[in-house]
Amino acid sequence: MTSTDAASFIRDHLPVMPVPGIPEIRLHKAAPSSGLGRLAARDAQGFGAPYWAHYWAGGLALARHILDHPDTVAGGRILDLGAGSGLVAIAAAKAGAAQVIAVDADPYAIAALGLNAALNAVPLDIRTDDVADLEPPDVDLILAGDLFYSDELAATVVAFLDRCGIDALIGDPWRRSLPLSRLREIARYDVRESGSATKSSGVFHFPARRA
Ligand SMILES: C[S@@+](CC[C@H](N)C(=O)[O-])C[C@H]1O[C@@H](n2cnc3c(N)ncnc32)[C@H](O)[C@@H]1O
Does residue 211 lie in a domain region? Predict the structure, then answer.
């Protein structure tokens, strides 16, 4: 499937909805009628887990925090790691970041990011990349919404942050692989992620380990 086909499917089948608890932002999100299974069937090789189609507790908390505390990003150059649908990146752009780079490894997330940036009328620098291979970016702050859902990805993200030596803000509902010993909790929010009752999610500072 080409990126144009993916974007057309998302535009036609994933309705635009206000984000729960974040009415400032609207996103294309999966609904019962979306038929993501049809999209997966058309692209058996390329279709992975459609994380970009759902709300994640960590991203919801981090986006809410950024919009409530725009000084955390205003005027800065920001990288949103594993950006998914773009919720956190869009929040940073709306809060006044000077530049927002949104990186994801999944080409479907890249298609969703393009549509959602246009929908919210914010400029995003959208890049397809794997965190494992990513060069340290020229940014002031790294944002990571809900990236600690497996030990392997958590280790990859921590190694990347240590390679960068740049402060990060992390949104996460205390998933098992969250590296708590490296984090300082700065806020917590009650959020509604897809398919779940209200749950609590933290926002954490990951201080840069400078060489
Ligand atoms: C649980 S979703 C969170 C999305 C978004 N940050 C949010 O909070 O709404 C995780 C995202 O990380 C991306 N991802 C997973 N492993 C990755 C990797 N190694 N490199 C880049 N992106 C990755 C997935 O494609 C997915 O979009």
Answer: no
